[in-house]
Amino acid sequence: MQMRIIRIHKKSFWLIFEKYMKMNRFRRHNEVGGYIKTNGDKYKQMKDKIRIVVTDSGPGGLKFCAELAGYLKRIREAELIFFNCRPADGWGYQRLQTDAERAEVFSRALSAVNENYSPDMIVIACNTLSSIYAHTDFAGSTQIPVIGIIDSGTRCAAKLLNSDTELAMLMFATPVTVGAGVHKRLLVESGIRHERLLYQECPGLPEIIVNGDKTEIESRIAYFMDKAAGCLQGKKFAVSLFCTHFSYAVEAFRAAAAGYSGFNGEIINPDAALLEQVAGYLEPGKSVSGDVSVKVVTKTRHSEQVKKTLIPFLERISPETAHALRNDIHIPEFFNG
């Protein structure tokens, strides 16, 4: 039985950003190219057509890439490159034993992207890779902005937790992300009591989701939800999805959480906050819409089953991204894993 694609809610994702852009948060310039913020929080002149690389350790970040494509089409010409930097067909970053090993491989991947595509910005749409980015050699040498998803997710979680001081947060993530503990550390540093924050490891779930077996997806999510929520004894809780693959299965998480009386109905999916963060680095000159091209580049092969699962979903958000996945560029030797 194949996974049914989740319907997009009637309240359009883009309304959030139309409102955001109308807040006049950005300085205005006459140049069509506009400006981009560099690592030193200074702005430099942008080319008329900006190039952004979105990367993930699998295909999960394609949903964010599609949302970014839709946003950019409203304001400027752009070239988007989604880069699946999974190091090998048979294994990924989860199999590496230490953060140092993961950082070394990821740094090589980022260097290869920079050398081959010269992006104006890199967006890490992956919690696992965001958690190790600071340890890469690339992080210490690059001058282009690199934006990770962890800050976006923790800001959303902190806002919700501060609005209700009795609320607990169940944070679903991969084992490596849980082991890094960055979300919890940042939330505790912001003043949230650590006992309100509960991580739940979800080994194997990203692969199950993109393979699209609805019965298996719902079964595994129900299992992980029971492990996490079962110990709360009826306390109020919300859910955070700290893996971009999980955003394809939001309704399955919602259905599993709804079986517990303490669930407050809130599920944090950091994609929208990450898009706002990316928008904060761009200063569009004149508000002009333009063509947005999308490429999908991958070191490892996307199976036909993964494409069958994700393409209909992406088509609803960004036909360009769906087309790019259908015609992905497979480069096994792109970097040394």
Task: Give a nutshell description of this structure.
The protein folds into two domains: about 15-150 and about 270-330, Rossmann fold, CATH 3.40.50; about 150-270, Rossmann fold (3-Layer(aba) Sandwich), CATH 3.40.50.1860.
Describe the structure in your own words:
This protein has 337 residues and is an alpha/beta fold. The protein has 2 domains: 13-149 and 272-330, Rossmann fold; 150-269, Rossmann fold (3-Layer(aba) Sandwich). It contains 14 helices and 13 strands. It has helices spanning 13-21, 62-72, 99-117, 127-132, 137-141, 150-163, 175-180, 182-189, 205-211, 214-229, 250-257, 271-279, 304-317, 319-326; strands at residues 35-37, 43-45, 49-56, 77-84, 121-124, 146-148, 168-173, 197-201, 237-241, 263-268, 282-283, 292-298, 329-330. The strands form 3 sheets. It has a 6-stranded parallel beta sheet. Strands 8-7-9-10 form a 4-stranded parallel beta sheet, sandwiched between helices. Residues 1-14, 16-38 and 40-45 have low confidence and may be disordered.
